[in-house]
Amino acid sequence: MKQVKGMLTIADIHADPFVIICNNCSVPADTFGTVSGDQLNCSTCQELTTYQRCLQLHCVIQTEGTVQHKCILKGNLLLELCPSLTGLTYEKYLEDVTDVTYSLRDFHVHSSFLLDSSDVIVRRE
To answer: Each residue of 100-120: pLDDT tens digit?
Structure first.
């Protein structure tokens, strides 16, 4: 675990805020699986299984100076810091991407954050 203090912002407000999670091994499959309809051929667990889409944002913490820490914001902390995403489904997102992009445009939080070994923000301090 490491603590990083600075300004948290979204790395790319135009990026899809949903990540595909394999229901079999619970690993994000956004870079190593193929999706066909409601099935995922997961390259981690080597299974053809179902999946779910979960909200997750790739962020950057800008510390004093020019140091940037790439990190991931997800789960309850994501909804706490960005309440405009509460209740958002993938289908609603696809209906109007601009609403989500607009709400993320001004997102920034200045604080101290605790990151795990995978650079996922565990909590705000």
So the answer is: 898 898 899 999 999 999 999
